Amino acid sequence: LLGSNTDYEVFGLWAYDATVALAMAVEDVGITNSGFKNSNASFKSTYLDTLTVSQYGPKLAQALSSTRFNGIGGDVSLIDGQLQSSTFKIVNINGDVARGIGFWTLQNGIKKTLGQSSANCSTLNCNLGPIIWPGDSFSVPKGWEIPTNGT
After folding, report:
1. Residue 27 phi/psi, 5° resolution?
2. pTM across the whole model
3. pLDDT over threshold 60, residue 1
4. From CA 106, how far away is CA 43, in angstroms rounded?
């Protein structure tokens, strides 16, 4: 969405961080083999009969829930099994087209790209991507104007 092959989507950064978190949890638990046991599925299905469950599941879930680090997409931590977002993509939606114009993080505020220097910027001096208004205009609409001549 940001127009360049070198730009990274936030979801890709989160996926990378999630993979790192899982690897850290696997190392923390000390998994050396992938032992599985048959599931206790109580319903009949030809496919479900073949499912197995990792014997390390509960330990891995516990280790993953306590994993915290500063990843490439921001701080990584899980609360109630959900990744806590610390990076938000600012998107300009016009019709059915979405254009990424920048990012916001708690640590760095608004930035055009992730990893940009930590000096805070406002929308005026940050060189964010352009905002395209309805009608494909780059000019901010004036909105309703109240007539002053009484008509």
Report:
1. -65, -40
2. 0.51
3. no
4. 47
